[in-house]
Design brief:
By secondary structure, the protein is α/β, with parallel strands linked by helices. The protein has a single domain (about 35-184), classed as 3-Layer(aba) Sandwich (Glutaredoxin). The protein is built from four helices and seven strands. The strands form two sheets. It has a five-stranded mixed sheet. Helix 2 (about 65-80) links the parallel strand 3 and strand 4. It is globular and about 40 Å long. The termini are far apart.
């Protein structure tokens, strides 16, 4: 039992170091490396942001135990309906590990929250750690239509859903506008 505990700690340390090196590459000298968001969804499909070029992508990280994440998910579903005719895609990534939420529990959570947004898993938090050194949820990450990570990341959910949606709308509209003007 102690051996498996030590192996888990070593694995977490390796993943953290890997994510830290990815962060330093993306902000270091030379050509910056783009963060990699490629995870499997509960629907069995793999989602790779680099293959979604042409659309603005909003990636939200959350967890079943995160109370503000529930409110955020409802707001994201509203925004998804609002942007249905625009090149915008939404992804929700759970950072729950399997002990916190099995696939079955996560599917039930998605059903209870009436999610139509693809639900992905990042149980080791390796993808999350590319964007933040510490866990603060919800965390939103945006990618432009040309597939580039658009800084800064945003944390939190306003207690007023309309304030939150206005903030996200502003960011999405900026990315849609700048992508259109750069493509023209």
């Amino acid at each position: 039992m102690r051996s498996s505990f030590l192996k888990s700690i070593v694995l977490i340390a390796v993943l953290a170091l890997s994510a830290a090196s990815t962060r330093s590459l993306s902000h270091g000298a030379g050509s910056p490396a783009e963060p990699v968001v490629k995870l499997q969804g509960l629907d069995g499909h793999f989602y790779d942001v680099s293959e979604m070029r042409g659309s603005v992508i909003l990636v939200s990280f959350g967890a079943t135990w995160c109370a503000p994440c529930s409110g955020e998910l409802a707001a994201l579903e509203d925004l998804k309906r609002e942007y249905i005719r625009k090149p915008v895609k939404f992804l929700w990534i759970s950072i729950d590990n399997p002990a916190q939420a099995s696939d079955g529990k996560l599917k039930a959570y998605a059903k209870d929250h009436k999610l139509t947004i693809p639900v992905l898993r990042d149980p080791t938090k390796a993808t999350y750690l590319q964007f933040s050194d510490r866990i603060r949820l919800p965390l939103n990450v945006f990618f432009s239509r040309d597939g580039r990570f658009d800084e800064p990341v945003t944390f939190g959910m306003s207690s007023e859903p309309e304030v939150y949606k206005a903030r996200v709308r502003q960011r999405l509209d900026k990315l849609l506008g700048s992508s259109r003007s750069s493509a023209e």
